[in-house]
Amino acid sequence: MSRGIYDTIIVGGSAAGLSAALYAARQGLKVLVVTKDIGGQLLLAPQIENYPGIKVVAGLELVQSIKEQAEEFGAEFVYDEAIAISQINNTFRVSTKVSGDYEALTVILAFGKTPKSLDVPGEDKFVGKGVSYCAICDAPLFRGKKVAVVGWGDHAFRAVKLLRAYDNKVYIIHKSEAKLTDEELIKDSKEMNIIYIPNTTVLEIKGDTKVRAIRLKNVKTNEEDELEVDGVFVEMGYTTKTDWVRDFVQLNENGEIITDKLGMTSRPGVFAAGDVTDMLYKQTVIAAAQGAIAALSAYNYIQQLMGRPTKKSDWGKLI
To answer: Which of 39, 263, 270, 304 stands 20 to 30 A from 180 (CA)?
Structure first.
């Protein structure tokens, strides 16, 4: 069954992508955001003090607020990873890892850095069925369940705390033997609400219609074990992935997408914004501004495509 054609598909769910979604949806466009998580590296910022008009805001609070605004204007979200893009006449097709293909008149590439995957059997099969890369998005779905967080550091610990807020029992799986130093996590571990499993890697994610267990291996003893869980949250950091667009739009020597001042790439109808572009300054407010510019440029491109051309002198009148 056809999903229909969107006006714009935005790949990425941090400051640039969410701002693009907000501005595009507010112009009345049919908008789809394809993203593996919400917030990206912005979630690592406990305090942002240089966002205009806001004295202090947590990264989490900021992205949630922009996402809610975009949804209020009708933007749709799919939590998946874009892996390919192609052009068919005047439309673009974005292919995802799990949920299939989506088509649109324009595309805005705003994916910045992408959450790392475990690359183990069962991972792709159970994305959206127990495997998640976004605790903000999915924690409420696992209230009172047993879940595993695979990873270490601020991002992983933030996910653990969020999951504990929904009364989940959380296993922390980490490949080395680092010690917990966070007082809140230590307290929870003593009460057995958090169980830390060091020196361990995930070999496989198992289940039927959803995740039921993970197969683990102790890297010191080589012993294998199986742990029953209802969900797996992969929190292993981020990587820059632009190879999938390398033959579609022009990149610079650093693998960044080259854009002009209107967010246009080398391919008409495809725009880019945020950290994935060749913009020198990688700041939240700049990424958000680039997202807004790309969205308005996509809107004007569609007007021209539909035979309703707008003069460039009128572009700045869009609000």
So the answer is: 39
The answer for residues whose C-beta is within 8 angstroms of residue 289's C-beta and 6 or more apart is 19
| Helix and strand counts by DSSP (H, E) for the chain | 7, 17
Cβ neighbours for 226, distance < 8 A, ≥ 6 positions apart: 206, 213, 214, 215, 216
N-term to C-term CA, the chain: 35
Q: Where are the beta strands (DSSP E) in the chain?
A: 5-11, 31-35, 76-79, 82-88, 91-96, 101-109, 114-115, 131-132, 146-151, 169-173, 194-197, 200-207, 211-218, 224-228, 231-235, 238-239, 270-272
On whether the 5-115+238-315 domain is CATH 3.40.20.10, my answer is no
pLDDT at 115: 84
Looking at residue 95, its pLDDT comes to: 97
Average pLDDT in the chain: 92
How far apart (Å, rounded) are the C-alpha atoms in residues 193 and 70? 35
- Residue with token string 């999951």: 163
Low-confidence ranges of the chain (pLDDT < 50): 1-2
* Measured CA distances, 254 to 237, 241, 278, 281 (Å): 20, 11, 8, 14
Same fold, 5-115+238-315 and 131-235: yes
Give the residue extent of every domain in the chain: 5-115+238-315, 131-235
Are β-strands 82-88 and 91-96 bridged in parallel, bridged antiparallel, or unpaired? antiparallel
Counting Cβ atoms within 10 Å, is residue 144 exposed (0-12), middle (13-18) or buried (19+)?
A: exposed
- Read off the amino acid at residue 293: I
Structure tokens at 291: 């997202």
User: 134: closest CA among 98, 154, 162, 167?
Assistant: 162
CA-CA distance, 106 to 76, in Å (whole number)? 15
Catalytic residues: 134, 137-138
- Measured N-to-C along each axis, helices 59-72 and 15-26 cross at an angle, to the nearest 10 degrees, of 20
CATH of segment(s) 131-235 = 3.50.50.60
